Model the fold of this input.
Amino acid sequence: MKLCVFDFDSTLMDGETIDILALSFGRGGEIAAITCEAMNGKLDFFEAITRRAAALKGMRYDEVVRICENLPLMKGAIECVGELKRRGYKVVVFSGGFHIATDPAVVKLGADAAFANILRREGDFLTGQVGGEMLFDFSKGDMLRRVQSLLGVAAEDTVAVGDGANDRAMFRYAKTKIAFCAKEILKKEATVAIEKKDLRLVLEHIA
Done:
């Protein structure tokens, strides 16, 4: 068995979920600046995610659902995942973002699973709190080792695709490390760098 793990925001999806939510909520500039710092490795990821989630306090949950069900997939995402499945890969999504965004995308893409965070709500509104599986800089690496152990897949048969600083953790446990339209901090640790927004190009580097 082989495994391919994708980041979600700005990799499988063309944009940053939390920035898109913030723009709708009138906090776009503030949250986008924090996202930029975090993805470039200039801000601790836990601090970044908690600050950004707090800025969404009071946003209507039904609006969050509506936006997250209609996020734009990256060009070539469906074709890339479909071909990887045909080649015998398990395809898993790791996101420092939120299940409310990744779960609908997993269905559209035909991926096998997603691990992400949860925007907490009380009644019809977000509380500004966040919890989940991907809250820290090390989370993706830790989860990748767990998935590899569960599936019996070695690092030699693992591909990781991402764009930001928090994807470095999963790169450590994958032989093929693909930086997709990525920040410089991630490119330094990649075995492959793709600069064009088309996920079909990933297939050229995977057996």
Summary: Residues 2-205 form a domain with the Rossmann fold fold (CATH 3.40.50.1000). The longest helix spans residues 139-151. The chain is about 40% helix and 25% strand. The chain has one domain: 2-205.
